[in-house]
Amino acid sequence: MNSSTSTSPPDSDQSTTRDWTVVYVVDLCCLLCGRAIGSFETRRWPWFGPVVLTPPRGQPAVPIANWSQLRCPTCSGNVYADEVRPTKLYPSVALDDLDVPRRGRPPKWLVAQRQTTRSTVDD
Q: Which domain holds residue 80?
């Protein structure tokens, strides 16, 4: 049977490289009272390993061995992942990398300055 559509694998020459990584931001809430417990970031989801929990209202971050074992500090209810947001984490860029030469014709004042510089160097 001959099909007009083919699913050929992409060429190895067209390999795509990513400059970012996916980080999941997970918000935790109490199942019983609905209060926000905090949030943490992880590179894999689902994840039940060690995380650094950031409580709400600017409290200091706390390392947690397993977030699924947490309890609400107010009512001792179970904690669940209320919202899981995948976000892209880009590497930091140095300011030197952003200073690229401009394209196009240079301004007249710059051309005149370069000509005077050349004439003083040639003399």
A: 28-89
